[in-house]
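Appendix B. Worked example

We walk through a single record from start to finish. Start with the input: the chain for RNase H type-1 domain-containing protein, Rhizophagus irregularis, length 216.
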Amino acid sequence: MGYDWIFSTDLTANINYLGSCKEWASSTKAELVAIITALIVCPSQSTVTIYTDSLSCINTFNNLKSPKLSTRRFQKINNCALWNTLKHIINEFKLQVTLIKVKAHSGDSLNDAADILAKSGCSSKEYMNFNFHHTKTQTCHLQFNGTTIIDRNIRKTSKRMINFQYFERHLAHQNLQIIKDYTLNNIIDWEYSQLWFKYNSFSQLGMATVMVINRL
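Next comes the structure step. The output line below is what the pipeline stores for this chain.
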């Protein structure tokens, strides 16, 4: 995912930055990384106003100040390690940060320029990596394969990985070889098939199975 930011206080200075991020890619993460990299270069004790079209980022940022947000609830937020990094930067630099919503694709010249830069950032091979071990608010992280920090709801992510392992063993049965072939060739979309099985109106599983295979 590409991201970028533009310094709008003095446009004649032509200060901007773009890059790309990987692992747990999403538009919200790209916006969050853009905000973090913008705050990194701000002088200490600055008052910073950031204009973004990501309502998700704004809502999460505002919720960080809520007394109802316990440590347990915070760990369920996607990109919680990055949000911890954001809090760390704000506290260390003593920044006053405000996020303001800008409507996307509304003809705002700076927002449109930022979108163009973000698309250019998608092709960048220099990925932004963060050393999360220095954040004071979180002393440990769960890693996958020893390299990738699981920056998602830990319980849901762990359950999903275990389910994938069970599913892989299930498909290894010789009677399900054709289903396995369809899966490996991306003929079956199991995510949507799961939703169909869960919400279909048929009471008999056999009939539902026939309908899914026919649709595929």
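Two observations about the output. Residues 40 and 65 are 20 Å apart (CA to CA). The longest strand covers residues 47-52.
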